Amino acid sequence: MARVSIDTWAPPAFRPIMMLVGGMLLALSAAMLIPAAFDLFARNEDWRAFALSSAVTAAFGAGLVSISRTKLAGGLTLRQAFVLTPLTWLTVALFAALPLYFSDYAQLRDSFTNAFFEAVSGLTTTGATVIVGLQDAPPGVLIWRALLQWMGGIGIIATAIAILPALGVGGMQLFRTESSDRSEKVLPRVREIATAIVSLYLGFTALCAVAYWLAGMTPFDALAHALTTISTAGFSTHDNSLGNWTTPAVHWIAIVGMLAGAVPFVLYVRLFQGQLDTLRNSQVRVLFGFLAVVIALMSLWLVSSERYELGDAIRHAAMNVVSVVTTTGFASTDYGAWGNVAVGVFFGLMFVGGCTGSTAGGVKIFRYEVMARLLHSHFLHLLYPRGVFPRSYAGRALPDDVVASVVVFFSLFFVCYSVITIVLMAFDLDFLTSASAAVSALSNVGPGLGPIIGPAGTFGPLPDPVKWVLAFAMLLGRLELFTVLILFMPRFWRG
Amino acid sequence: MARVSIDTWAPPAFRPIMMLVGGMLLALSAAMLIPAAFDLFARNEDWRAFALSSAVTAAFGAGLVSISRTKLAGGLTLRQAFVLTPLTWLTVALFAALPLYFSDYAQLRDSFTNAFFEAVSGLTTTGATVIVGLQDAPPGVLIWRALLQWMGGIGIIATAIAILPALGVGGMQLFRTESSDRSEKVLPRVREIATAIVSLYLGFTALCAVAYWLAGMTPFDALAHALTTISTAGFSTHDNSLGNWTTPAVHWIAIVGMLAGAVPFVLYVRLFQGQLDTLRNSQVRVLFGFLAVVIALMSLWLVSSERYELGDAIRHAAMNVVSVVTTTGFASTDYGAWGNVAVGVFFGLMFVGGCTGSTAGGVKIFRYEVMARLLHSHFLHLLYPRGVFPRSYAGRALPDDVVASVVVFFSLFFVCYSVITIVLMAFDLDFLTSASAAVSALSNVGPGLGPIIGPAGTFGPLPDPVKWVLAFAMLLGRLELFTVLILFMPRFWRG
Ligand SMILES: [K+]
Ligand SMILES: [K+]
Questions:
Q1: Which ligand is nearest to the CA of B350?
Q2: CA distance A384 to chain B (A)
Q3: Quick one: which H or E segment has residue A397?
Q4: Can you say whether the dihedral through the CA atoms of B402, B407, B413, B415 is positive or negative?
Q5: What ipTM goes with this model?
Q6: What is the DSSP letter of B205?
Q7: CB B355 within 8 A of CB B283
Q8: Pfam families annotated for this entry (chains A, B) (predicted)?
Q9: Taking the CA of residue A26 as centre, how many other CA atoms within 13 Å lie in the half-sphere pointing to its CB?
């Protein structure tokens, strides 16, 4: 993880950025050998697409590294860090789309738009798919989609811990730790935490895969779904997602796995270090409390509207509510057919999001907590204009600049959401499809609502320009808006 | 206009509140004699309903005043002002519904829900109607609906100038003037401004009525529409609103009238006093600039989609865009049938609103200006973490507490909008109907979008509980959220 120094505002020095992007591409090219192996093993000719892409990616990566070899001793400047983050994600997504585009699989090879959409949707852990008939897709394509989501998940944890707090965007400065603080240089400690998190991530995935397998999935399905569960990402190997398995155990395993992925990963590390007060973490408690209330109400509604018996009602409510709130996007059934009120609730849930520092996307719990603090102190101030009402969060004072960052994040989120919705409607999509696609892409949920892109549908029929807009929205949301939008400020590029 | 002192936080002294509410009821009972006269003149038996209601209202008003006779020398306490505002509006709306409920008119007499909805929609200048077949409604009912909107319009100007700034809600403290400032006691000056504004309001209405008449309306239609144009309120005497008149002049008069009503009325006073720099008022310039851009784009779309010739395209675009942005709610045609992109744009426009201190509702221009200042300074701060970027508005420093108020207003607006949308969906209304009804009621626009409540529809078919929810939303939005919501804080009622 790169250290960011916010003291300097140097002219654009792209050398270190190119070197880091090149390194990422080398890692990506190595990852492409995994689906190649799967296809080889299944005697599927597609292994050539992955091998070719791996070679191309490796060549580009090696080229970038060799022409930009430099030392990162001084860390990155603020501007470099701002450029690095979206550039890395975009470049990796472009190269990740190559094997899909080169493959023999008819639904992707004919259209770079579809290949890129699928790659971005994977890497950003969104999980919206253009494919119909997943069960007939070659194993290499399926495992590559799952792998992209898994790598995207660990990538966003790293970004949220190491980069965003130092950039001070969206209130993330609240989570400045030793690993991102500009004033300290405890690199060994950073490495230690990073190693711990990656090990945990691997461990959780393995556990999840074994559990799915014991619950009745094939080893391949178990692995593919484990990769996309812990990363709260949501790609499946079947069109009807987890609805393909009727064993309740599969759904409960998914619920536990998605929740595990939506919790800040540093908390696990602290818990393993014996810091038991971690269990009282504010974000986690609010998330679980909120989920409990919504699942209870939704179960009641499902029972009272005679859609399910109590047990099934609780399972389907828990599965799909947890899926949307953690921004995973799995579905155990077509909840879009649960009636208008359910559509309204699921639409609203797409604006919630999981915890910061996890693989979950969306607005995220801590921002709602900060807004609640602001509202509370404001109403007190209205009643007692001369009173002073300090705000605090997690036992510490809540700085005004964090509140301002969070407020600006909300505003930007709603601006982006509104603009994308209207752009989609300009392509003659209906209101529910446009609005739900916009928030689903921005929050990296995956499925939308309505007749086309609902939990039982796919993004395939949408016009190509809409797919590019949504792919942009996924990156925008995944990188917490600011890091992308700031690049559109002319002043950013001036001296 | 009552002076508000924010220094005291006294125990609930309802005496002055009851006296002021009683006074309002007396004024309302006098106003009821106008529709009574119209019905008498038209030899319609409905005059009895108005006469009876007038008597009942007068009796209640006189009773309240007599049991609470007190001196207002000390002004109102903060808490009294908070209670007074929603209580007055609610009481007046309840009594204003009486003649509609007592009338012989079949669409209103059978249901107090319908009568109350129509009265609240009138008084809050919303203009959503439950009636089908307006052209057959008795003249008394039609003129009472128009009169309610006209009185509601001047009522909200008074509230926005005299009460809200002193309460410090929603950033309105930015508009503290001599008339509302706690530290000065220039009551003659207040009276002078109030008289000037009321005279202007009367004058604009008369001008508008004459213009409509000259353009071909009957004197009755001209009067009824003038009353609801200047108040940006939108009740019509025909189901197809201003689409009933095909003369372009009628639409252009409406456009000018709606714009006149959406501009802060104190600006006219200042202009008449010779302060020509008033013309550079920031809110007004942003409003007109924004309208110009949207109307131009919408006209282009109408021409390019071959719906209208250029001239008609500009007229219909201007008419309906101005109608929605100024929260009037007139329609020159069913713009809900202009295709998905138009639906998206009109939906978005309902979130804009006119200028503060006018009769227009909605979020309002100055709040967007304040948010833009916040976003701008925040992005600069991201680029230059050590820089200091003071915010200013209209040439003066923009205090942090105003920014906070505006931010809280936006949050509350979106919370209310979301909750109301989901409540409406719980009554099995579709997403577009629910969402557009919610924002239309909160912003006091009037018509919604979709098959039921679009510009060509009515709110009549909605279930009764939905009508009550929307009536509440209209009052909530009209009184700028805070003044209503604060009454739900338990602490407000404690010592
Ligand atoms: K997802
Ligand atoms: K209106």
A1: 2
A2: 8
A3: strand A396-397
A4: negative
A5: 0.89
A6: H
A7: yes
A8: TrkH (PF02386)
A9: 12
Query: How far A380 CA lies from chain B's nearest CA (Å)?
Result: 9
Q: Which of B82, B172, B431 to probe the A interface (max A CBs under 10 A)?
A: B431
Q: How far apart are CA B363 and CA A354, in angstroms?
A: 29
CB-CB neighbours of A455 under 10 Å: 24
> Element (H or E) spanning A393, and its range?
strand A392-393
CA dihedral defined by A480, A484, A489, A490, rounded to 10 degrees?
A: 160
Which 3 state secondary structure label does DSSP give A4?
strand
Nearest CA distance, B375 vs chain A (angstrom): 6
Instruction: Compute the Cα dihedral for B216, B335, A418, A349 and give only its sign.
Output: positive
All residues with CB under 5 Å from ion ligand 1: A 127, 233-234, 327, 329, 446
Binding residues of A for K(+): 125-126, 327-328, 444-445
Token duo for residue A216: 């009745």
Q: What spacing in Å lies between the alpha carbon of B441 and ligand 2's midpoint? A: 9
Three-state DSSP class for B76? Answer: strand
B422–A371 CB contact, under 8 Å: no
- 10-residue block means of pLDDT along chain B (495 residues)? 45 75 94 95 91 96 86 72 90 96 86 95 95 91 96 92 82 66 46 87 96 96 97 94 94 97 90 79 94 97 94 96 96 92 95 93 94 92 85 86 91 95 94 96 95 92 96 95 88 77
A294-310 confidence digits (pLDDT tens): 999 999 999 999 999 99
Write down the residue that tokens 């006091």 correspond to. B444
Tell me the residue length of chain B: 495
User: Inter-chain contact B404–A374, Cβ cutoff 8 Å?
Assistant: yes
> What span, in angstroms and rounded, lies between the C-alpha atoms of A190 and B380?
30
Specify which residues A393 forms β-bridges with: A396
Q: Is the CB of residue A253 less than 8 Å from the CB of residue A208?
A: yes
Residues that constitute the known binding site of B:
125-126, 327-328, 444-445
Identify which of B341, B347, B382 has the shortest CB distance to residue A168.
B382
Q: Which residues of B touch A182 (CB under 8 A)?
A: none
- Selecting from B374, B383, B430 the residue whose C-beta is nearest the C-beta of A491 gives B383
Chain B residue whose CA is closest to A79: B383
